[in-house]
Amino acid sequence: xxxxxxxxxxxxxxxxxxxxxxxxxxxxxxxxxxxxxxxxxxxxxxxxxxxxxxxxxxxxxxxxxxxxxxxxxxxxxxxxxxxxxxxxxxxxxxxxxxxxxxxxxxxxxxxxxxxxxxxxxxxxxxxxxxxxxxxxxxxxxxxxxxxxxxxxxxxxxxxxxxxxxxxxxxxxxxxxxxxxxxxxxxxxxxxxxxxxxxxxxxxxxxxxxxxxxxxxxxxxxxxxxxxxxxxxxxxxxxxxxxxxxxxxxxxxxxxxxxxxxxxxxxxxxxxxxxxxxxxxxxxxxxxxxxxxxxxxxxxxxxxxxxxxxxxxxxxxxxxxxxxxxxxxxxxxxxxxxxxxxxxxxxxxxxxxxxxxxxxxxxxxxxxxxxxxxxxxxxxxxxxxxxxxxxxxxxxxxxxxxxxxxxxxxxxxxxxxxxxxxxx
Length: 423
Known about the structure:
By secondary structure, this protein is mainly α.
């Protein structure tokens, strides 16, 4: 049976992509709550605490998310890829989920205990970073629950139960009882992490998204860690490329700069929301589609991404001071150039397409990893050279330059892969 290649042009791309839009709509609706929670938590922390105390909480927050991603070791994407391939075989899906969850559980427990001992040894009991270990296990596990929902055809719930749900619960508590102490805020966040994780796994089991595994299946294994090694490094390096400047600023510039940089990067949250939602929607599709279909769906994703991100970016570029003042306070105004650089880099990433996730889901994660290594290396070396001269704008400039380089190289690599597959 012959297959006709999809028509070109914007109208043809959108029309051919319509059958895929129902899961995208679901993914958007679920993820918007999670993403809004992260943004709201950061705004509340910035407004309720002093710059220094807010910097302590936000440093711990960024470090926690990075450690959770490293502990997941790329196994969230591995779950999505394996469950997509094993559609229809419920027993195989249950084995995959049980083995990966057991592996991450053991790993996260060990690292949490080690982190607690290190914090105690360094005398960090008076600051949030000293209690990072309390939230590490639930923050790591909730990402796996979200991945299972996405892979089993529930992208809305998958977006809903991401780590942003922790921030939703924590923000609710801060709205009810505003705080002025960084350590108290962090304790609230830790309790929210455990509650969100329990609710996510309870929902997954009660809804029988996958059958409850027997005790014999819950055995940790090195096999998924080895298989997902490139995926894990990609996830970790991606986070470092996005948030490494915030962590480095706490060392090079002090906690006040952490708060300012965090505010700037949080302005990207709606754009990152669009990128991550499209990635979550496209990932299982890219794993199984024919090459020409994958190429076409990437074009649909570009059109949708620019359509969703364009209005917000326009408002931010036209009224940067008004937005910064409304969200974070008058002391954060005067960042128009920094905002323009961040917008330019991120919009270019959207305009070139979801090439990183395309490479990963079609089995070429090694090339994605090498490109990401180049980006992170450029970002770190460039930041080390520019920050002493420019201050925090050095981080912003290197972020924009490095993301532009990565986006261009990913596009070239993805086009080469699809041509090699016959697209």
